């Protein structure tokens, strides 16, 4: 497990149940906020007096988390964009590291965001504060050299996917498969009729979900292509209904995009109900990321799209280890759903690929079976399993 093993025993013992385990956490984007909030639920069942603080989002705060910074302050997409924000984010990390070294929490939990978390975890581990990483950096997909930073930085990795612990073990890193929390949240048989009722949709309508992402940069890159694709689909099939979930911070930008494309009357914009939209839809047009896994767990066919700044894409593509970027395709090691990337993500191509699912019910049925198998594999009660693993690590 590398240098992390040299931490002093006096700093490793957990607070007794109810006495208030003090945990520092960092989640750097909205998907991490969701993961961390679920983990906090499980940890509170084991440590009733849990005290958790650091950098996070509204879902974590709803679990009693004290946020010194919002996760949105750390959200960066792409290498070039990261370079622009480097000084600001590095300053946040330096100040936070100094605070943690002074306050000495019982445990540091980094949630995804390995570029931010690994350097901080390494510093804390060296100082005897055990660091655990929730979400294994995707060394199996790109930037495999990060495995050395993981080994130097963390005591343990809580893995969301079943193949990751074995991969880490080859490099001397301890890991535990805890399952994916989204698989626990989403029903094996999603209630499409109930979801449509909650959204005010006709139960007999054909519904297309538009999921261009939850980050400013993603919306800037994909909102207009998605809306132009929706307009093309609506021209061909006027009966289609379109629903686009988002959060309050992106609402003004998306409302302007709807006006610009003339789609404000055709696209229903909803706040904070992404899972409801995924359950309600017949097909999804979705940005690569966690939302692709969520759509798969809802057993919905999809078309995955992604665009980023050209230099960021070129650098990332040089380090890519799989032929896919979408989680459903990576996990199944097969091109189950279309991926339209960079210049491929044109409105005409997006519309054509999305409508193709509506014309092939046999392919949709096969896809749903594959997604059901994936769901069963990932459904492990992550909050309970991760909390148990954390307790074992602290007692070691």
UniProtKB/TrEMBL annotation:
<keyword id="KW-0808">Transferase</keyword>
<dbReference type="GO" id="GO:0016020">
    <property type="term" value="C:membrane"/>
</dbReference>
<comment type="pathway">
    <text>Bacterial outer membrane biogenesis; LPS lipid A biosynthesis.</text>
</comment>
<comment type="similarity">
    <text>Belongs to the LpxB family.</text>
</comment>
<protein>
    <recommendedName>
        <fullName>Lipid-A-disaccharide synthase</fullName>
        <ecNumber>2.4.1.182</ecNumber>
    </recommendedName>
</protein>
<dbReference type="GO" id="GO:0005543">
    <property type="term" value="F:phospholipid binding"/>
</dbReference>
<keyword id="KW-0444">Lipid biosynthesis</keyword>
<dbReference type="Pfam" id="PF02684">
    <property type="entry name" value="LpxB"/>
</dbReference>
<keyword id="KW-0443">Lipid metabolism</keyword>
<keyword id="KW-0441">Lipid A biosynthesis</keyword>
<keyword id="KW-0328">Glycosyltransferase</keyword>
<dbReference type="InterPro" id="IPR003835">
    <property type="entry name" value="Glyco_trans_19"/>
</dbReference>
<comment type="function">
    <text>Condensation of UDP-2,3-diacylglucosamine and 2,3-diacylglucosamine-1-phosphate to form lipid A disaccharide, a precursor of lipid A, a phosphorylated glycolipid that anchors the lipopolysaccharide to the outer membrane of the cell.</text>
</comment>
<dbReference type="GO" id="GO:0009245">
    <property type="term" value="P:lipid A biosynthetic process"/>
</dbReference>
<dbReference type="GO" id="GO:0008915">
    <property type="term" value="F:lipid-A-disaccharide synthase activity"/>
</dbReference>
């Amino acid at each position: 497990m590398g240098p992390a093993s040299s931490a002093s025993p006096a700093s490793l013992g957990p607070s007794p149940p109810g006495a208030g385990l003090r945990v520092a956490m960092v989640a750097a984007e909205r998907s991490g906020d969701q993961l961390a909030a679920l983990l906090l639920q499980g940890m509170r069942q084991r440590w009733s007096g849990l005290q958790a603080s650091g950098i996070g989002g509204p879902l974590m705060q709803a679990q009693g988390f004290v946020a010194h910074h919002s996760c949105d302050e750390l959200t960066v997409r792409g290498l070039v964009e990261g370079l622009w924000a480097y000084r600001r984010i590095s300053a946040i990390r330096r100040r936070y590291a100094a605070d943690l070294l002074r306050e000495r929490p019982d445990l540091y939990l980094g949630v995804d965001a390995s570029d931010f978390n690994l350097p901080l975890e390494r510093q804390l581990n060296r100082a005897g504060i055990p660091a655990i990483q929730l979400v294994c950096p995707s060394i199996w997909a790109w930037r495999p050299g990060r495995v050395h930073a993981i080994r130097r930085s963390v005591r343990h990795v809580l893995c969301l996917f079943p193949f990751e612990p074995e991969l880490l073990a080859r490099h001397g890193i301890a890991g535990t498969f805890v399952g994916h929390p989204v698989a626990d949240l989403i029903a094996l048989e999603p209630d499409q009729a109930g979801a449509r009722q909650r959204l005010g949709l006709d139960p007999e309508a054909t519904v297309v979900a538009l999921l261009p992402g939850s980050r400013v940069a993603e919306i800037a890159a994909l909102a207009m292509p998605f809306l132009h694709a929706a307009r093309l689909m609506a021209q061909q099939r006027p009966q289609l209904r379109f629903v686009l979930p988002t959060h309050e911070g992106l609402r003004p930008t998306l409302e302007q995009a709807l006006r610009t494309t003339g789609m404000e009357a055709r696209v229903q914009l909803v706040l904070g109900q992404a899972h409801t939209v995924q359950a309600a839809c017949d097909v999804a047009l979705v940005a690569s990321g966690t939302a692709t896994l969520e759509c798969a767990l809802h057993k919905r066919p999809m078309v995955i799209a992604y665009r980023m700044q050209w230099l960021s894409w070129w650098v990332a593509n040089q380090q890519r280890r799989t032929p896919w970027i979408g989680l459903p395709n990576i996990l199944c090691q097969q091109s189950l759903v279309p991926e339209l990337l960079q210049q491929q993500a044109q409105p005409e191509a997006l519309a054509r690929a999305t409508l193709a699912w509506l014309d092939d019910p046999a392919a949709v049925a096969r896809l749903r079976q594959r997604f059901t198998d994936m769901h069963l594999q990932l459904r492990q009660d992550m909050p309970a399993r991760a909390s148990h693993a954390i307790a074992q690590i602290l007692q070691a």
